[in-house]
Amino acid sequence: MFRKVLIAEDHEMTSISVTKTISELGIADTQYTYYCDDAMMLLKKAQQAGAPFDLLITDLSFEEDHRKQKIAGGEELIALSKSFQPNLKVLVFSAENKSALVDKLFTDFSIDAYVRKARHDAKDLRAAIEAIAQGKKYMTADLKQSVKVKNTFEFSSIDLTILKLLSAGTKQKDIPAYLQANKITPSGLSSVEKRLNIMKEVMGFSKNEQLIAYCKDYGII
Amino acid sequence: MFRKVLIAEDHEMTSISVTKTISELGIADTQYTYYCDDAMMLLKKAQQAGAPFDLLITDLSFEEDHRKQKIAGGEELIALSKSFQPNLKVLVFSAENKSALVDKLFTDFSIDAYVRKARHDAKDLRAAIEAIAQGKKYMTADLKQSVKVKNTFEFSSIDLTILKLLSAGTKQKDIPAYLQANKITPSGLSSVEKRLNIMKEVMGFSKNEQLIAYCKDYGII
DNA sequence: TGCCGCTCTACGGGAAACCGTAAGGAAAGG
DNA sequence: CCTTTCCTTACGGTTTCCCGTAGAGCGGCA
Predict the structure, then answer these.
(1) Cα–Cα distances in Å, from A174 out to A177, B26, B118, B207?
(2) pTM, two decimal places
(3) Could you tell me if B76 and B60 are in contact, meaning their C-beta atoms sit under 8 angstroms apart?
(4) CB-based contact (8 Å) between B118 and chain A?
(5) Secondary structure class of A30 (helix, strand, coil)
(6) Which helix (H) or strand (E) holds B33?
(7) A51, B18, B124, B179: least buried by Cβ within 10 Å?
(8) Nearest to B217 among A125, A171, A216 (CB)
(9) A216 touches chain B (CB under 8 A)
């Protein structure tokens, strides 16, 4: 089992429960932070002191407040942590249930476990920590399904750009100019139209308004 | 202070922390459920047994799973609870930060407190419970600001209808037919255009997509 | 009743978006 | 080096949307 655990989680309530769960597993040495920058600092200090953390439990999204942060969110924190302490085990504890995102975390960021904030997350978290301790990977059950079943449409970077521009009031015909100015290809008006058509077709939508509403509902933009 | 508290919250971790916070306030008799239907049942039972709950702490969104529920979410739960136990105090504990939504909860559902799941939510929750116990209303600080600032334009019923139709994929020119079918006046296409123009002008917007995005962001539709 | 002010509706010209088609261009493969 | 294929872009015709104007309906008031 782990000896020293760091929790990066901006919700106080969640942080309390995570701490409690860990202490129930017999891990005495836990620290927690509400900010990514603090988490980074603690990781570095611990390593320099010769007593590095061996598990990081982190959320993905951290809300901005008066304290300006260099590290914006969980992904960045994970990447930086791994870069100077590659053996650090990482458990992501987040409400996100997008299969593509979770996949990326496992492949690109080589995390060890993903626990989704949901109905039985306390049990899941315990199971995940035990699994990692045995050198296994862990993923909440519901996500395993959704990776297979909910083959939801993957919005590309340019799709998101287009949607953001539209919801910012940009006229469709003015989008090519913006794309060119920002060196984004493809930039033709037809390509913009094509992307919008594909998005709408996949979703079974007929109008841009509908698409924007959907993306807002699911936090895509 | 309260004697008997019911917690309706589908996230196990959050539920644990809420329970802990409440017990720290010296409230011994707390029960928790992961489902709205269960919450409703417990409220009814308690009242029939002559020992009703005097505080309900509930989330807004409950995830669906294998257990089919009659009550879909927090709003519905609150409405039903109040209908048969009007003196029940209600504290909403949710991650939503849409001012329009929170406003609606206070005015239409006459809740007593809204605590947003955020950085200092444990402190906020404690403060909220103490405020309610003294017969006060409570709202997290960050929301007070946004309610005041953003609550400029008053969306009429027909405005909301138009916006909902648009975001459901209805063509603008087909909206008059819908309005007539539902006996809503005015129903002319020009009137629809006029309402949209007014909304956009007030907000400083130029396109419908922008308007939809705004309304989704602030929970207006 | 006749005038006035108001809102809703109808119409038409122009702009933007939609949609199909075809030409241009780069990468992959023989 | 050429061909095939896929993707991007360009260009028209049609639909929808946008916007200004004008007329119709309705209540208030002298």
Answers:
(1) 6, 61, 38, 13
(2) 0.81
(3) no
(4) yes
(5) strand
(6) strand B29-33
(7) A51
(8) A216
(9) yes
